[in-house]
Amino acid sequence: MVRGYDVVVVGGGVVGLSAAWRTARRGLSVAVVDPDPGTGASHAAAGMLAPVSEVTYTEEPLLRLGLASLEMWPSFRDALEEESGVDLDYRAEGTLEVAYDPDDMAYLDDLAAFEKTLGLPVERLTGRECRRFEPMLAPSIRGGLLATGDAWVNPRRVVRALLAAFERAGGTLVRDRVTELSTGGDEARGVRLASGEAVAGSRVVIAAGCWSGSLAPGLPVRPVKGQILRLRGPKGFLTRCVRGMVHGSPAYLVPRGDGEITLGATVEELGFDGRVTAGGVYELLRDARELVPGITELELVETTVGFRPGTPDNLPLIGPAVAPGVIAATGHHRGGVLLAPVTAEAVTAFLTGGDVPDAVRSCDPERGVR
Description:
The chain is of the alpha/beta class. Helix content is 31%, strand content 29%. It starts with a strand and ends in an 18-residue tail after the last helix.
């Protein structure tokens, strides 16, 4: 059996579903192929929309991409909530970055100076000022930074909303696994499924996260393991994202409106090792306890492993790639939820001949990263 569409999107995570929804809204027939949508990196993600507090010294193109996408998030949220009826638990109180000891504070001071050279909205705080924002912080906190422009969202709700909005826009969800791209001459013509069925499409979007390279070997994407915990406590235990440095190790705590707190995350180059380890859980809880001592009184409700799709230079791969008719939308590493709106806009532009956002030009899959 062969089913035909204008566009076939391989991958039903936040990135793939966002691109599919936006494309379907433009009137194209779109199929998303995924055996279990939203259960990969999107399921494990914390949902931080934090390009400022995630900035590093050598990744200014990634910062510009994140800022462009963060600016799109309010309208993206409004449209998605309206079309799906799902509350995304979007919050925009900013990120509080705190330091545990003098060396951690020196690092944050250097980071603040760098952020100011980029014109980023960051406020330097004393330890007392940090505790005024978040009373549950440890008395020993030396100080911190407030990134006022950062936001966050519940990625599992985002996936649920995208599935509903995509189907409402006329999209088709194919719950099967893609085994290979179908080609005619040198061009992609669709995909073949594990069931033996073929799904034809004049364009194929590869949004399969860390599995993208197995479908399109020219895409340099690898899995980066992350262990993450979910805790449950009283509403208001924390009111904003708290990121901390503890003896040089980073940790973050992301509160939800229902009292859940997401605690993460390890960064491990271990391939597809899906084990939750005692050491990983211990390190996350140990560092979080130094920042927020009361965290150990909360209920531990979930331990999860996710595989971030990493690239050699940490920039995603967005644009024509591998063969005519193929569009890459992968390699977003830690930023898939943040970068979903700008990626969706870029993919739609590539598919329809529209204007591609300037910030995406640094993400050309043919830029030579290997």
